[in-house]
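For reproducibility, we list the full input for the threonylcarbamoyladenylate complex.
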Amino acid sequence: MGTRSRRVSVKQVRSKLVKWDDLCMEIIDNVTPGEIRKAAKALKDGHLVAFPTETVYGLGADATNEKAVNRIYSVKGRPTDHPLIVHISSINQLGNWATDIPDYAIKLAKEFWPGPMTLILGRSNIAKDFITGSQETIGLRVPNHPVAHKLLKEFETIGGLGIAAPSANRFGQVSATSSVSTFNALGRLLGDKDLILNGGLCSVGIESTIISCVQSLPEILRPGAVTGEMIETVTPLKIYTQSKVRFPGSFINHYSPRARVFLNTSPTPGDGFLALSDVKTPEGAIRLASPKDSDEFAIILYESFRRADEMNIEKICVITPPQKGIGIAIIDRLNKSKYKN
Ligand code: TXA
Ligand code: MG
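The corresponding predicted structure, in tokenized form, follows.
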């Protein structure tokens, strides 16, 4: 058991019924410039730092440090052949990690970075097999959250090249969109030199759009807040299909809470219920949230799933939002999280 210099508010801890004795790593609630320096140094020293991005929280490690990256895999319980996204502070860092960058990828980066978009590009020789899952490509992203941005800048100032970070959750489970959810998902598995940086509730709430940039046209591998329509304002796009590329988001069971998720069915009394605010709660169902539009729906989706699990709800019925804009990404995640018998 390490020191417990934890600075998350006790109220947050209590509301999640976390036991103090389980605490080991440090959660930094108020991220000052000094804390950013400390977190960047922790990364450089080979420790893990979970940090907020505008999409979801990431579990970060120095992307050039094999031992640190291996710890990400063991903490997440993720198979080691599934590649990680490397986060960089700006488009200027792109050339360190990628080669053969097509013009359309530069256009996309200029338009949507910093932001909720990951580009898959040919890898340079600093992108080792332990990051790419031995694939010849590398996923790169410039996040837009101020804490992520400051951390990346500081890390680069002390000689870091990029932060590898998958979503901060156990493999197959729901991504974390707050520091408390990150703690609840992974806290027990982190060590006393590891950190969790708080940056509030993520403003997008679902993972970045992943775009493969290794063919003559870009292809969406995972839909997100940067939508097909937005991409098409910059470049023609290969039509979105379920990709053949191996990545865990395409597994059958992913983004799943413990409760069984059903789409567009009527709940029975005691079931969890999630729908846009203009849909009435069926008799006896437990309303998990009432988002007023699809953007809000994305923000509260994973937190609602976690809430249902905390309430020991066994079944969640979700009425899907319209299949347009970010609704396409929400429906993609819901289809992967839904109960398959
Ligand atoms: O919003 C996000 O993308 C968050 C934040 C933390 O940046 N990250 C995230 O990472 O969702 P992760 O590891 O949970 O999901 C990234 C997905 C995985 O399905 C991974 O297999 C895929 O991206 N991926 C990464 N590199 C790839 C590559 N070279 N080729 C194909 N897929 C790749
Ligand atoms: Mg993930």
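The mean pLDDT is 91. The pocket of magnesium ion (ligand 2) is lined by residues 166-167, 175 (CB under 6 Å). Both points were considered when choosing residues for closer inspection.
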